[in-house]
Design goal:
InterPro entries: ArgE/DapE, Bact_exopeptidase_dim_dom, Peptidase_M20, Peptidase_M20_dimer, Peptidase_M20A, YodQ-like. By secondary structure, the chain is an alpha+beta fold. 37% of the residues lie in helices and 22% in strands. It contains 12 helices and 19 strands. Strand 4 and strand 5 form a beta hairpin.
């Protein structure tokens, strides 16, 4: 039986080699779609057609229902519409009684903005290959991993292998800002015995990640022409006070006792001011300044309590300024309302991933702790589905000239194939 399984895996790995040029072309294709927030439909339509026509999967393309998911644990509040922005699920149903464990393979196709494009040496949507690298926005995070999971399944199908349990390929939206795409798929009934997400942390198993919230601060000043600046209040300058307060908050939260999973990380909790807008004329004193920030926190902490803490911290800082004490800043939260996650290394999904990784690479699996968030929180925390991340390697994620290492994509495709065969079982 061991020899038979080995022969089947070898057959699938050979098929991955045969399909490698197709996989690279597929990655180049999906990398050409500028699938930023609100612009995911064209790529999702392409993937849905690919699932149906190329892979003969039962395919569902649906738009998240905000009224439904807004009542669920893990929902993140949004200020935009989901109209015309689908999630795609392709199902490969097992042909007979279930003899293995079902599996979700999930990748997000939303990407962050490539701006400022002037800093790039390559077209962000050009999927340019130079040596072993492919350059473009979202190719590392995480269209390369999405390609790997799709072609792992495609290779198994084309090798004529029948699995013992269902496989669900999911491409979701909004991992970069809410995770509501993953939540909507789960709420629609797409659940399984395990889930793998090929986030680009390299060929390691993710065992912990921080929680994340987004905060918006609106500071009101007293506008005027610059010649009366001595009688005006500059909202940008007043915003500095609160931005500096967030810097002090960052020091404070990192000075507190660490969560055990993050004990070896020097600076696990990041606070980042990512957006600021104020003024519309150099000779005017701006009457309003709005800035937005991302704040990390540990697993087992309640996002709402962190929001309350951040708001209290900023309001306390505002009291130290004569103007802000009287004209209180408006503090609101939107986007990420994401809990942190810490997983037990004894989970069965880690054992299966260890075996698959050792089989395809000859090396022992290493674990990874992330100071950002991923969609694994939904599966582990709210639906009892063990889930982790394992993916390709690259560089400049969310920066100019983002790239992915192509040999690592092939290696991940092979590990995913070995994992699927073991987890789902092989029907004789």
């Amino acid at each position: 039986m061991i020899t038979q399984k080995s022969d089947i895996l070898e057959k699938v790995l050979n098929k991955i080699e045969e399909l490698w040029d197709d996989e690279v072309a597929f990655l180049q294709k999906i990398g050409s779609y500028p699938s930023t927030l609100g612009n995911e439909a064209a790529l999702q339509n392409f993937i849905a057609s690919y699932f149906t026509e190329e892979m003969q999967l039962q395919t569902d393309k649906f738009v998240p229902d905000v009224k439904r998911i807004s009542r669920l644990p893990g929902y993140s509040p949004v200020e935009w519409s989901y109209a015309g922005r689908p999630v795609v699920v392709g199902q490969w149903k097992t042909n007979g009684p279930k003899i293995g464990k079902s599996l979700i393979l999930q990748g997000h196709i939303d990407v962050v903005s490539p701006e400022p494009v002037s800093l790039w040496n390559y077209n962000p949507w050009g999927s340019t290959i130079v040596g072993d690298r492919m350059y473009g926005r979202g190719l590392q995070d995480m269209k390369s991993g999405t390609s790997a999971m799709i072609f792992a399944v495609k290779a198994i199908k084309e090798a004529g292998i029948e699995l013992g349990a269902d496989v669900l390929l999911q491409t979701v939206i909004e991992e970069e800002c809410t995770g509501n795409g993953a939540l909507a798929a789960l709420d629609r009934g797409y659940v399984a015995d395990g889930a793998l997400i090929p986030e680009p942390f390299g060929p390691t198993a993710l065992k912990a990640q921080v929680g994340v919230i987004w905060v918006r601060v609106r500071v009101t000043g007293l506008g005027a022409h610059v010649e009366r600046a001595d009688r005006a209040v500059n909202a940008i300058e007043k915003a500095y006070i609160l931005i500096n307060a967030l810097g002090e908050y960052r020091k404070y939260i990192n000075s507190r006792p660490k969560h055990p999973a993050f004990k070896d990380i020097n600076h696990p909790l990041n606070v980042n001011v990512g957006k600021i807008h104020a003024g519309d004329w150099p000779s005017n004193v701006p009457a309003e300044c709005v800035f937005e920030a991302r704040i990390g926190f540990y697993p087992d902490q309640d996002p709402q309590q962190i929001k309350d803490e951040v708001k209290a911290w900023l309001l306390e800082a505002a009291k130290e300024d004569e103007w802000l004490h009287e004209v209180e800043p408006e503090i609101t939260f939107y986007g990420f309302h994401a809990e942190g996650v810490s997983l037990d290394e004894d989970m069965e999904i880690f054992d299966a991933l260890k075996n698959a990784h050792k089989t395809t690479t000859g090396e022992e699996l290493q674990y990874f702790v992330s100071t950002c968030t991923t969609d694994i929180r939904f599966y582990n925390l709210y639906y009892g589905i063990p889930a982790t991340c394992y993916g390709p390697v690259g560089g400049s994620m969310h920066g100019a000239d983002e790239w992915v290492n192509l040999p690592s994509v092939k290696a991940v495709t092979k590990t995913y194939a070995a994992f699927i065969l073991d987890w789902c079982g092989i029907r004789n």
